[in-house]
Amino acid sequence: MFADLGHFTYTAIQIAFTFMVYPALILAYMGQAAYLSKHHHPSHKIGFYVSVPEIVRWPVLIIAILASVVGSQAIISGTFSIINQSQSLGCFPRVKVVHTSDKIHGQVYIPEINWMLMILCIAVTIGFRDTKRMGNASGLAVMTVMLVTTCLTSLVIILCWHKPPVVALAFLLFFGSIEALYFSASLMKFLEGAWLPILLALFLMTIMFVWHYATIKKYEFDLHNKVSLEWLLALGPSLGIARVPGIGLVYTDLISGIPANFSRFVTNLPAFHRVLVFVCVKSVPVPYIPPAERYLVGRVGPPAHRSYRCIVRYGYRDVHQDVDSFESELISMLADFIRYDWCQTNGTNSCIEDDGSSTSESRLAVIGTAAFSGAAAYEIEESMQPASVSLGFQTVESVSDVIEMEMELGAVERRVRFAIDEESETDARSEMDVSMREELEELWEAQQAGTAFILGHSHVKAKQGSSLLKRAAIDIGYNLLRRNCRGPDVALKVPPVSLLEVGMVYIV
């Protein structure tokens, strides 16, 4: 039932549990308790099917088989959902996630996890060869889930429902004490098969901890070794640095500053693209991000440098776009931002309201479904009337600031295709600034020249003097997981023909 919460509504689950599942459970347990109270002598054979009357034994067997199929499918789908969300939060190695439904984004399929579950099921069946041991393992797992759920629910009562701590404590003591008794009884079967779920839980927790720990350390290394904006602006023909045609998308985890892998790239190959975009893809701990709030765009340096920063936010249930649609939408957002920034700089009254702040490297604007007045620099096909939108630059210093950025949005549905045709250019000639048109034309020409995706290819090593446990976790555990999971280019759907990888050694 918990697994199916991601696929059905709360009302459907509540109705099914109240009128179907709960009465069936009560009747089944009352029947077994009545049989045990009458046949509790040691000479009697005690089992589930022994307590079932002979006349309904075969129908019960068929229902039990069907129930096991439904239950196993729910566990499998629940495992997929949990792995997918853990991966989005950076707590699990990257695996292939296939979204099986165009309408319900929570329905996912992970081939690697499916194969692992099959191998584990076969191994447990061959290893135990006894339903009693399997029952002991299942019983301890179920009781552990119930006990952990009760503890987490007590936190939800305080943090989400904002109830007094006394209510949460009473809930925990009442239900937790009952479940603790069952949990302690299940622990008595530890040597008789109950050790399996604990071993699997420790193994998965170790993998998640090692991956999350190394990921955090890598981010801290990038944060401490980022390059200043002055270094980027100093790069020019005087140093032998050339600007080549095209768009360079530099992927980084940083939301400010220049990543170290880009400085290594320029040091070894003294050239970079005419239009440079530092792209940061963030998974935020919310299910969905509206498309109008997904892109945060800002400048890196003065307009003449043609460098931008774009933070793309995805919820843990959002479907990542393929590279073609992502590239087209990113160019459209850059065009929106260029026109918006031109309006802000020139103080045009017909533009969108702002908070009076100026553009800089540390300021970003939420660029989404906005209704600009005046002639457009791209073609728009609208299916609804645009509502008023208030956009403002806000200082972004951390991921929490990115998540908390607010914007008043109107319900507008539209399709944008970036193009500078003769008609729009003629209509806008009297209103658009020459520098703005030049910047848009350069963006269009760079798009036609092609896009290169610059990613870091990292190797993580524990620094000298680290403990043996840390060296084993980083040098062996994390690098083994990194080599055997999907690379960032595959996760971001980057075409190999446009990929540039920059090798980096992280000393953490």
TrEMBL record:
<protein>
    <recommendedName>
        <fullName>Potassium transporter</fullName>
    </recommendedName>
</protein>
<feature type="transmembrane region" description="Helical">
    <location>
        <begin position="108"/>
        <end position="128"/>
    </location>
</feature>
<dbReference type="Pfam" id="PF22776">
    <property type="entry name" value="K_trans_C"/>
</dbReference>
<keyword id="KW-0406">Ion transport</keyword>
<dbReference type="InterPro" id="IPR003855">
    <property type="entry name" value="K+_transporter"/>
</dbReference>
<keyword id="KW-0633">Potassium transport</keyword>
<keyword id="KW-0472">Membrane</keyword>
<dbReference type="GO" id="GO:0015079">
    <property type="term" value="F:potassium ion transmembrane transporter activity"/>
</dbReference>
<feature type="domain" description="K+ potassium transporter integral membrane">
    <location>
        <begin position="1"/>
        <end position="233"/>
    </location>
</feature>
<keyword id="KW-0813">Transport</keyword>
<comment type="similarity">
    <text>Belongs to the HAK/KUP transporter (TC 2.A.72.3) family.</text>
</comment>
<feature type="transmembrane region" description="Helical">
    <location>
        <begin position="195"/>
        <end position="214"/>
    </location>
</feature>
<dbReference type="InterPro" id="IPR053952">
    <property type="entry name" value="K_trans_C"/>
</dbReference>
<feature type="transmembrane region" description="Helical">
    <location>
        <begin position="58"/>
        <end position="83"/>
    </location>
</feature>
<feature type="domain" description="K+ potassium transporter C-terminal">
    <location>
        <begin position="245"/>
        <end position="506"/>
    </location>
</feature>
<keyword id="KW-1133">Transmembrane helix</keyword>
<dbReference type="InterPro" id="IPR053951">
    <property type="entry name" value="K_trans_N"/>
</dbReference>
<dbReference type="GO" id="GO:0005886">
    <property type="term" value="C:plasma membrane"/>
</dbReference>
<keyword id="KW-0630">Potassium</keyword>
<feature type="transmembrane region" description="Helical">
    <location>
        <begin position="165"/>
        <end position="183"/>
    </location>
</feature>
<keyword id="KW-0812">Transmembrane</keyword>
<feature type="transmembrane region" description="Helical">
    <location>
        <begin position="140"/>
        <end position="159"/>
    </location>
</feature>
<feature type="transmembrane region" description="Helical">
    <location>
        <begin position="12"/>
        <end position="37"/>
    </location>
</feature>
<dbReference type="Pfam" id="PF02705">
    <property type="entry name" value="K_trans"/>
</dbReference>
